[in-house]
Amino acid sequence: MQISDWLTAPKYGARFLDNNQMLDLGLRTTKFRNSSAVAKHIKKLSREFDLMLITEYFDESLLLLRKLMCWSFDDILYLKQNVRADESRSQSLSEPLKDRIRKWNVADTRLYEYFNQTLWKKIAAYGPSFRRDLQYFKDKETYLHNLCVGNATSITNTRRNLTKTRYNVVENATDHCTLMINNEKNVFKRLWVKQESVA
């Protein structure tokens, strides 16, 4: 089903696609289209969270998190997993369709706009070293990828017409590389075993 058709008569999965970020963050479904209630909830969230990460600016967000938490660059390194292949990405959406999506997700849209603005304010407050630190971080990411990543595997979900690229660890990889490229299930299992051993 095309997203334009679904928006005309939202049925299947509607409750999971109706402002679900704000739902996860505690706003009642009856308040999604109440402008003052949404604004009040966003203000509440801004007091409770020192930083919201934005997916499109993930590296920039991680750099701010590093500074906030007094971490090293190594503490925020990551390897991408389950990357959607270019041919599986949706075609460009028309502006009218984008507007319909924003109206359907009006509370989530306002949440995103607010914290996207605060992200760039925090980047400006970071100071002139931000761009230099960001490039240094990206260089470390590239080095880690070259060190740890071997061949790639394409995973296709024919029902959803979706192809993702999954990276495999190199032969004789270090323990660090293996941990970095593990999926979340294996990481949680590893942490669970370690926790049990010290309990």
Average pLDDT figure: 86
The residue fraction in helices comes out at 55-70%
**Uncertain regions: pLDDT < 50 for 5+ in a row?**
none
Structural class: mainly alpha
Identify the strand order in the major beta sheet: 1-3-2
Number of helices: 10
The span between the termini is 50 Å
Radius of gyration computed on alpha carbons: 20 Å
Number of domains: 1
Please describe what this structure looks like.
With about 200 residues, the chain is mainly alpha-helical. The chain has one domain (about 5-85, about 95-199). It has ten helices and three strands, in the order αααααβαααββαα. It has a three-stranded antiparallel beta sheet. A hairpin with a 4-residue loop joins β2 and β3. The chain is globular and about 55 Å long. The protein starts with a helix and ends with a helix.
How would the blueprint of this fold be written?
Elements: H1 3-8, H2 14-17, H3 20-24, H4 35-48, H5 58-69, E1 83-84, H6 95-104, H7 106-126, H8 130-148, E2 149-157, E3 162-169, H9 175-181, H10 184-198
Antiparallel strand pairs: 1-3, 2-3
Quick overview of this protein structure:
Strands 1-3-2 form a three-stranded antiparallel beta sheet. The mean pLDDT is 86. The chain has one domain (3-86, 94-198).
Short descriptors:
199 residues; globular; single chain; three-stranded antiparallel β-sheet; 10 helices; mainly alpha
